[in-house]
Amino acid sequence: MAKVVKAVRGMNDILPEEAHLWHFFEQTVHNWLALYGYSNIRTPVVEHTDLFVRSIGEVTDIVEKEMYSFVDHLNNDRLALRPEGTASCVRAAIEHNLLYGGPQRLAYSGPMFRHERPQKGRYRQFNQVGVEALGFSGPDIDAELIVMCTRLWQMLGITGLRLEIGTLGSAESRAIHRARLIKYFEQHVKHLDEDANRRLHANPLRILDSKNPEMQPVIEQAPRLIDDLDESSRIHFETLQQLLREQGVQFEINLRLVRGLDYYNRTVFEWITDKLGAQGTVCAGGRYDGLIAQIGGRPAPACGFAMGVERLMALMHECGKEIARSVPDVYIVHQGEQATSFAWKTAELLRESGCQVILHCGGGSFKSQMKKADASGARFAVIIGDDEAVMQVVTLKPLREVADQVRIDLNTLSDLIKAKN
């Protein structure tokens, strides 16, 4: 036998028994985005590597360790599988002049790729839904994004999420804070691990995001960015808090909230759960006012977030959310040459009327076909033999209730099925 080819590690199949949950999630997200006026944008899975190096930051885990980057041997382009969606969305907005007509509310969904150690809630190919509000400068859009999330959690039946918010200030205030951080960590260099030492002068803010437990006491005593905030960033953050309180959104202020991408400024936030073990962040985002100019566009403010679909669906399961699997209305059982021809006609007429129909294929006795009809979950079996075909009628048998089967013509079949549904 030939060797079985399996899926790449960390890149998972979504099987039919799981697909109904994905469909529910995707339909819910579609309806939710429409409530807030967000338009769909779809970008390529492959982008130029430089896009992510310039946007995410060269001294970040994503670019240094996780990004699938390669050289296209046909033209020597350096390409990458997208590790996140914001940079691609902003690139598309610049390339197609989307901001020419004013601010844009955009949303995307699809697979992202990072070379990480696969574990529950963390995969090498994973799916995200992202929302980007381009061209809006005030804290009101920051608040709207967060309020949007609270509504989605309600629509998905998710409970127990904790919201943490913080601020990274302006580029100027971060430059001041960066100098203070470098000076502080230089005094505690013996307590820094290899990654922190490497990033000390290149990107000291990343040290604050370290999960190394041995470094936490040093990190806790590090200078706080909020103490270096410029006045406009302070007002922006205070106004955001006020808007959230007015909308009844509970939050915690996390002054060490950094995020793993370099393009953020001012508002940052994360939605966190304790129900998924180590992979607790299910949705995160913030403001990135400098990114559009950074990758070649005219300067414009922006804010957004992304959520991990697999983590959210795992959380839905933990919260006891049950989604009924879609089942057909009718399973058509048939035997005989004339019966088969009439069965095809019956199936298409029922589908035209909006009924979900499985037409039995593969032959077999009536008994074996009826077993498959029952296993399909269909509410009704439509039974057709040559006698029915000659008379242009069918036998309708209820499968989920105690009731007599009836013989009826095609003109009343779909009406009767709809009435019973």
TrEMBL record:
Residues 1-328 form the Aminoacyl-transfer RNA synthetases class-II family profile domain. Its main location: cytoplasm. It catalyses: tRNA(His) + L-histidine + ATP = L-histidyl-tRNA(His) + AMP + diphosphate + H(+). It is found in: Cytoplasm. InterPro entries: aa-tRNA-synth_II, aa-tRNA-synth_II/BPL/LPL, Anticodon-bd, Anticodon-bd_dom_sf, His-tRNA-ligase, HisRS-like_core, HisRS/HisZ, HisRS_anticodon. Keywords: Aminoacyl-tRNA synthetase, ATP-binding, Cytoplasm, Ligase, Nucleotide-binding, Protein biosynthesis. GO terms for cellular component: cytoplasm. GO terms for biological process: histidyl-tRNA aminoacylation. SUPFAM superfamilies: Class II aaRS ABD-related, Class II aaRS and biotin synthetases. L-histidine binds at E84, G85, T86, R114, Q128, E132, R259, Y263, Y264. PANTHER family: HISTIDINE--TRNA LIGASE, MITOCHONDRIAL-RELATED (PTHR43707:SF1), HISTIDYL-TRNA SYNTHETASE (PTHR43707). Belongs to the class-II aminoacyl-tRNA synthetase family. This is Histidine--tRNA ligase. It comes from Nitrosomonas marina. The gene is hisS.
